[in-house]
Description:
This protein is of the alpha+beta class. The chain has 3 domains: about 5-120, Butyryl-Coa Dehydrogenase, subunit A, domain 1; about 125-230, Beta Barrel (Butyryl-CoA Dehydrogenase, subunit A, domain 2); about 245-380, Butyryl-CoA Dehydrogenase, subunit A, domain 3 (Up-down Bundle). The chain has 13 helices and 10 strands. Helix 1 packs parallel to helix 4 (about 70-80). The model has no long low-confidence stretch (mean pLDDT about 95). Flavin-adenine dinucleotide binds near residues 128, 159, 161, 367 and 386.
Amino acid sequence: MDFDISKEQKMIQKEMSNFCKKELNKDYVRWMDENVDFPPDELWKKLTDVGIFRAAVPEEYGGDGLSCFDQMIAYEEICKASMSVALAVGTTFSFGPRFITDLGTKEQKEKYLPLIGDGKLKTCMALTEPAGGTDILGAISTSAEEKQDRWVINGEKVFITAAHVSDYMITICKTEKDAKPSKSLSVLLVPSNSKGITITRIPKISCHHCDSVGITFSNVEIPHENILGTKGNGWYEMLDVLNPERIGCAMMGVGLIAAAYDDAFEYAKTRHAFGGPISRFQILQHYLADMYINLENSRNLTYKAAWLFDQGKPYHLESTMAKLVSSNGALHAGRFGAEILGGYGICSEYAMQRYLRDAYQLQFSPISNEMSKNMMMQFQGYPKSWA
Ligand SMILES: Cc1cc2nc3c(=O)[nH]c(=O)nc-3n(C[C@H](O)[C@H](O)[C@H](O)COP(=O)(O)OP(=O)(O)OC[C@H]3O[C@@H](n4cnc5c(N)ncnc54)[C@H](O)[C@@H]3O)c2cc1C
């Protein structure tokens, strides 16, 4: 077993680390967090130039076709600098190439993938509905009816990250009225400028510079060829495509723990109380030790899940554990990092309050930690505890 990474992988790490130090420094990230609901175009252009959107696009469509492991090496640095930017990038770099590569026709791949790689096409994935995200099959009611050469979409989605800036919404709709829920869905590629789409802002405490919004579809008409995959088989196809999402979300937690650890570690060395640095107090060292253990555990699990995915081996148990361990580690890191900074831990001047706020989002998105544990036991052969 080899835990080392290759020379090429070290180069990816270094390039992204340098990029993030320059383009995602703390002052700029704070400015974004206080002023914008999505990374500005100029940053998007720089992210494009550094190659992030080419990473998951196959080489034959102009991308770099990196392995999941290599993608995660690049992504870790962004996750550490800003979870909002990581989330914003993830909705395009992960959802777009994966849905279109796995489910698209040759024409769809030729049309969309090069644009994604060139940073000219943003995507989002619209699954969750107001009636609930965990029991999504029970909750989904957004419908798409076939009318001549078009689909007509009606319904409502909620918490859709980056929908307010996307060019295309990968939207999961009910297309089979009389089929059982798991055989009733299809994946549609909805142009965001279609008539009848309304976006509603959802103010939230986490990830301020990457909004997640509500979408209303009112008699939205899209061309019939905008289906991805097979009509009525969307549930199974979508799960195959979406499951690796947990690896990327786990990496967000890894980045967040790393950032909170670094900040708290440095702060404790320079802040003085009772005649010396607070870093000498054992209890604060223990907070940091726990953060470090969580960092190591979640990073190892996340890269292991990515490696398993690349080998074509079962990875669901590991990716689900990675998401769980890293999201809990992130919340712990924000909470105890803030403790180490004392009153400054909740002040806007310091990034710690952002880590704490952002960490909450990972508890239940893209899947809640309660449901993650349900699934872990199902993967190990126990009967489904929630059906
Ligand atoms: C900021 C943010 C961004 C998001 N981005 C997207 C996106 O881009 N696209 C998208 O489609 N969705 C997105 N989501 C939706 C996300 O996937 C859902 O929030 C998530 O699936 C949970 O659904 P819910 O919020 O409706 O909670 P609910 O499903 O209502 O769950 C409420 C509580 O009940 C618990 N619960 C439910 N069922 C069980 C069970 N069987 N056993 C134990 N506990 C259970 C849950 O764990 C949770 O604690 C996002 C959500 C947020 C908050």
